[in-house]
Amino acid sequence: MGNELLNVVKTLNNGVKMPGFGLGVYKVWEDADARDSVRTAIDHGYRLIDTASYYDNEDGVGAGVKESSTNREEIFVTSKVWNEEQGYDETLRAFERSLKRLNFDYLDLYLIHWPVGDLFKDTWKAMERLYDEKLIRAIGVSNFNIHHLEKLMNQANVKPTVNQIEYHPHLTQKEVKAFCESEEIQVEAWSPLKRGQIFKDETIQSLAEKYGKTPAQIILRWDIDTNVITIPKSVNKDRIIENSQIFDFSLTAEEVESLNQLNKNERTGPDPEIFS
Ligand code: NAD
Q1: Structural domain count of the chain
Q2: Domain, as residue range, for 138
Q3: Radius of gyration of the chain (CA)
Q4: Is 200 inside any structural domain?
Q5: I need a labelling partner for 183 at 20 to 30 A (CA). Which of 14, 16, 63, 116 fits?
């Protein structure tokens, strides 16, 4: 299984290779739980871990990476600068704090968590500096709509490599995804399982039956088949393993389209246009 996971790699627009499948750790508030789930995931083939300063578990994530059976250099870790940490000087300090909590000497990917007002432009300048100083291998954004990306790219020296957005069959983000693809910005899905609120859908259930898979596995396979990096969250060992067992089948073009058609523009999280 580990080998199959290692094959799912995306090359970002700066040449850095990013695993196409990983573990999310939002709402894993206890460091010990974050440590254990990260270690379990890595020991079962995961190579991408998604955290954020806001999740308050970077200590646990760093410990899990360290205690796992795999070298730090083989693991791709993402963190994010939180809304209240944005601005030039604040971002430099926030990054230093994240790196210290993770107990790393570099980070693989650093994202602007949300497009706060006009502040994100200064945040980006700080991230470009950290990137130039080789403290971060790639920089990107999260929850950016097309107009946010345009505003950022108008003044950026370094193009964002990734846009991490809420993405599942009830929120397919057609326009943002097409824009990102045309700009070679890799789309990454957050809440890919709609936080468990989508498993009863009939189309998903019938595909699950056809392939002898669970609804979660069908949705995660759809992420892979639609060229989107995915980071399902679980702290449960069996589910961590289950979620990664999606490389022994694939969906037909018609089945991918039938899942695309489930879109209802329905969010589990805030809308980037009106978040506070
Ligand atoms: P998710 O869609 O990954 O759902 C997680 C929930 O689904 C779990 O708590 C569990 O209850 C359930 N689940 C997981 N695997 C299952 C399985 N095999 N069978 C049945 N139930 C299962 O939701 P999420 O945690 O919100 O999103 C994933 C990750 O995305 C987060 O952990 C975080 O890293 C990231 N994220 C980023 C942002 C952002 O603003 N950038 C926002 C939210 C989440």
Answers
A1: 1
A2: 2-260
A3: 18
A4: yes
A5: 116
Residue carrying structure tokens 């991490």:
164
CA atoms within 13 A on the CB side of 196: 3
Specify the DSSP class assigned to residue 73. Answer: G
The pLDDT tens digits for 35-53 are 999 999 999 999 999 999 9
Q: What is the arithmetic mean of pLDDT over 137-146? A: 98
Residue 266 lies in a domain: no
Ligand 1 centre and the CA of 267: distance in Å?
A: 13
Tell me, what CATH number does 191's domain have?
Answer: 3.20.20.100
Asked whether residue 88 is domain-assigned, the answer is yes
pLDDT digits (tens, 9 = 90+) for 227-269: 999 999 999 999 999 999 999 999 999 999 999 999 999 999 9
Cα 26 to ligand 1 centroid, rounded to whole Å: 7
Which tokens is 171 given?
């929120």
Counting every residue written for the chain, the total comes to 276
Distance 191 CA to ligand 1 centre (A): 5
Ligand 1-lining residues (CB < 6 angstroms): 24-26, 50, 113, 142-143, 164, 190-196, 214, 216, 231-234, 239, 242-243, 269
4: confidence class by pLDDT, cuts 50, 70, 90:
confident
pTM: 0.98
Residue 186 · residue 10 · CB < 8 Å: yes
- Do residues 204 and 193 make contact, with C-beta atoms less than 8 angstroms apart? no
What tokens appear for 184 in the block? 């070679």
Counting ligand 1 atoms within 8 A of each CB, the residue from 44, 61, 190 with the most, and so the one to mutate, is 190
Q: Please, which residues have CB within 8 angstroms of residue 72's CB and are 6 or more apart in sequence?
A: 65, 66, 104
